[in-house]
Every structure is written in C-alpha cells, then in structure tokens.
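Extended Data, panel c. Modelled sequence:
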Amino acid sequence: MEETAEKVLFKNKTIYTKELYLNFNKFHLRTRNKALSISLYICMGIMIISSLLLIFLKLDISAGVTFLILSAVIVLSYIYLPNISVNRILKFDKTFENNENQYKFYENEFEVSNPFGNTKIKYEDLYRVYDTKEVLYIYINTRQAFLISKSGFNEDLENAIEFLKTKFKSNYIKK
C-alpha cells in the first residue's frame, strides 16, 4: 500500500481480547438496541405473569408451566447470547483473540493495520461512532465495528474524541 503524505493526527493501539469482544457484543445487542431490549423485557414480563395466572388460578396448569419454561429459556438466551457468540468465534478462529490493531487517524480517513494487512477507510464511508466509558465503536455498517480502546490513545484521547465528534456530527453518540 502506498504511503500517504498526510499528517497523522492521532494514533491508537488496541489489543482485541475476549473481554473486548464480549463487551462489544453486549453493547451491540443490549445498549445499542434499547427499543428491542425494552420490548423483549415487556413481552417476557407479560408471558411470566400470564403463566403464573394460568398456574395459580388453575385454568391450564400445563400451558402455564410451558409458558413459564419458554419465558425462562428466552430470557437466559438473551442474557448468554453475547457469551455464546464470542466463544463460538474464538473457538473456530484463533486469529481474533489477542490480535493487535494499530489505528492512524488522518484528516479525511483512518488506517487500520494488523498482522494480516492494512486498510484505509474514509470517514464518509463509515456508519456511526459510539463513545462508551472505555471504548470507541466505529461502525462500518449497522452490524460491524472497529473496537478502539480509549487507553490506546495515550495523551491524545480528548483531541481524538473532539476530532471524531466534528467528523461524525449527529452520528457520534455518547453512551
């Protein structure tokens, strides 16, 4: 890949760990999709209340128990889905864990480098940035993101955040 004459504004080094992937999956599933989470909890609450009413009023005990078990399975699946997803990925593809990504931020694009190659992406081609307590999630599309640890910026974190806010405007979301 050819060298750019552009000035590097910020650099970041992020090691992709199992914990980083797990936190991203939890964020993506639960925090980012609040409406889905709330509606799921409401439906589960209604199913559990209906199940208990069926059982305690002795209207249809078998249906009540079935709904109760189904509710428990759905809730547990929702809770453990991020863990299952991360474990499955890391089980079959060992290259993901402890992989180091280096990011270089330029005025109009950023570069991602790791042992498998490097690529440059224009900010205008990106979807959205979510700013959490420890990580910036720079989404490529609605499902995929670069996970950028804030601790990897060293002293440039505040400037990098302000820069990304100006680039992404309303697509920069603080969580």
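The domain at 10-17+98-174 is CATH 2.30.29.30 (PH-domain like). This feature is highlighted in the accompanying rendering.
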